[in-house]
Amino acid sequence: xxxxxxxxxxxxxxxxxxxxxxxxxxxxxxxxxxxxxxxxxxxxxxxxxxxxxxxxxxxxxxxxxxxxxxxxxxxxxxxxxxxxxxxxxxxxxxxxxxxxxxxxxxxxxxxxxxxxxxxxxxxxxxxxxxxxxxxxxxxxxxxxxxxxxxxx
Length: 152
Prior knowledge:
By secondary structure, the protein is of the alpha/beta class. It has helices at about 15-25, 45-55, 70-80, 90-100, 115-125, 135-140, and strands spanning about 5-10, 30-35, 60-65, 85, 105-110.
């Protein structure tokens, strides 16, 4: 089943993003490339926010965020309440974030994993359904304003 995917990166991950965009298209998925398209220095939060907005608006069903380490852009994506972005570095965590956490985005570090490992993570993320059942209760709590004070 073809999915609508949004990809975003920073300047450190432009080459990996391009390779993963091509790979996703070869698997039959519809792709939105949110940039950037050059290695000119950019700020990863700007692109993480774009990806989160694409998920929130419904323009994309899943998102792939990439920066040098994957850490910064994953934090940026997760600032939006509609996003559940997991930092992954191997296929097992990519599978588990879908199965257990219903993650709608993954983040990877272009300076930490190679392109073949990134492709394997992408495939695991795209092929794995959410497990539901006992996991649903936990995922529901991720959207609960746990730190918001009760009304007086």
